[in-house]
Write a structure and sequence with these properties.
Length: about 350
C-alpha cells in the first residue's frame, strides 16, 4: 500500500507552502555563522519564544480535530472528547513524571522528540515531496532515526555545553542536583560512539535509498535536506537552531498536513490561496493555543523552582511542550496509520 494524501493539491503548491520556507530559513540562519558573525545569546532564544504563538505550539492545538478529519469524518464532540481524554491521561502521567524523576523525564523528552520529528519528515518526504525511494519498513525506520537525530543528536555532538545548559535549566525547575544523573551523556567517549553509530546510519540509509530510487531528483532532495540540516545543526547554536527548525520546519510541515485533511483548506490551496488555508488553521488552533498558554502559566505555580529569567521561562515552556508532545505523538501516529505513511 502506498501513502495516501490529497494529490489534488499540486506539487508546486506543496513545495512552496510546506517545504521551501524551512529551506530558506535554515540557509538564512546558517549564513551569519558561516561568515563568523555571532548572534547574542539573548536573541537566540527569540524563535523559541515566538513559537509559543506562531506555528510551534499551535501546530499541536488542532489535534482534537485532526484524527476525525484524517478519517474523512466531521469531528463530533465524542471524537474531540477522546483526544482530550488522551491528553489528560498520557500528558497528566508524564507531567507527574517530571516532578518525580526530572532527569529521566528529560531523557524521555529527547527520545520522543527524536522519533516525532523524524516521523514528521517521513510524512513530508513521502506525501508532500512524493519521494518514492523509501520502499521498505527498515528504510522508513532508518529515515525516521536519521531525520530525528539531526535536531536531537547533532547539537549534543557539536555543542555539548549548550545542550547541558538547557538540560540543567529544565531539570532544575524540579531538582537542581538531578542533572548529575545524565552527566554520562556529555562524556567524550559516549559522544564519539553516538557520532560513529549515527554517521553509519546516515550513510547506510542514504545509500540504500539511492539504490532504490526511481526518481534520482527526489533522492537528491532527501540527501540534500539531510546533509544540509546536518551542517545547520553542527554550525548554529542549538537554542536558535532548534527554535527556527521547530517553527518553520517541523511545525509548518505538520500544518500543511493538517490543511490537506481539511476540505475547505484544501480547496483554498487548490485555488492557490494559501493565506485563506492558513487563516482556517489559525482559527482552528487559536482556542487551544490560548488554553495551553494558560496552563503554562499554571505550571509556573506548580514547579518547585519557578523561572526568573528568559532561559528559565523557556525551560518551563519546554517542559510544557514535552508534556503535550507525548499525546501529540499518539495523535500523529494514528494519522500515520490512517494515511499509510509507514506501509
Ligand atoms: C531547545 C534545546 C533542546 C531541546 C529541545 C526540544 C527537545 C524541543 C522539543 C520540542 C517539541 C517536541 C515540539 C513538538 O513538536 C536541546 C536538544 C536539549 C538542546 C539545547 C536546545
Ligand atoms: Fe509535532
Amino acid at each position: 500500500m502506498g501513502v495516501s494524501y490529497r494529490s489534488a493539491v499540486e506539487l508546486s503548491v506543496r513545495y512552496r507552502v510546506a517545504l521551501a520556507p524551512g529551506w530558506v530559513a535554515s540557509l538564512a540562519v546558517v549564513a551569519p555563522f558561516l561568515a563568523g558573525v555571532s548572534i547574542p545569546p539573548a536573541l537566540q532564544y527569540a524563535p523559541l519564544v515566538v513559537s509559543a504563538v506562531l506555528l510551534g505550539l499551535p501546530h499541536g492545538a488542532v489535534d482534537h480535530l485532526a484524527v476525525a478529519r484524517t478519517r474523512g469524518e466531521r469531528p463530533d464532540w465524542r471524537a474531540i472528547a477522546r483526544v482530550f481524554a488522551l491528553y489528560g491521561v498520557v500528558g497528566g502521567a508524564y507531567a507527574v513524571t517530571w516532578f518525580l524523576a526530572p532527569a529521566a523525564a528529560f531523557v524521555l523528552f529527547i527520545a520522543v522528540t527524536w522519533f516525532h520529528w523524524g516521523q514528521g519528515d517521513l510524512y513530508a518526504l513521502r506525501a508532500l515531496a512524493d519521494a518514492d525511494h523509501l520502499r521498505s519498513l527498515p528504510q522508513r525506520i532508518g529515515t525516521v532515526l536519521v531525520r530525528g537525530g539531526l535536531p536531537m543528536l547533532v547539537p549534543l555532538l557539536a555543542f555539548p555545553e549548550w545542550y547541558r545548559r538547557v538540560a540543567t535549566d529544565l531539570v532544575s525547575l524540579f531538582a537542581p542536583d538531578a542533572v548529575a544523573a545524565i552527566g554520562w551523556a556529555f562524556r567524550a567517549d559516549v559522544r564519539t560512539a553516538l557520532a560513529l553509530a549515527y554517521g553509519a546510519l546516515v550513510v547506510a540509509t542514504l545509500a540504500v535509498g539511492f539504490a532504490r530510487a526511481d526518481a534520482r531528483r527526489l533522492w537528491l532532495l532527501d540527501a540534500g535536506e539531510t546533509l544540509g540540516l546536518l551542517a545547520y545543526f553542527a554550525l548554529v547554536p542549538p537554542v536558535l537552531a532548534i527554535g527556527v527548525y521547530f517553527c518553520l520546519w517541523h511545525s509548518l510541515r505538520h500544518v500543511a498536513r493538517l490543511l490537506l485533511v481539511d476540505d475547505d483548506a484544501t480547496a483554498a490551496l487548490q485555488n492557490r490561496d494559501p493565506s485563506a488555508a492558513l487563516a482556517r488553521f489559525a482559527r482552528d488552533a487559536a482556542p487551544l493555543t490560548a488554553a495551553s498558554l494558560a496552563l503554562l502559566g499554571g505550571l509556573y505555580f506548580l514547579v518547585p523552582n519557578p523561572p526568573g529569567s528568559v532561559p528559565e521561562w523557556v525551560a518551563l515552556y519546554l517542559v510544557f511542550i514535552a508534556v503535550v508532545t507525548l499525546p501529540h505523538v499518539v495523535v500523529v501516529s494514528i494519522m500515520d496509520r490512517e494515511q499509510g505513511v509507514w506501509a
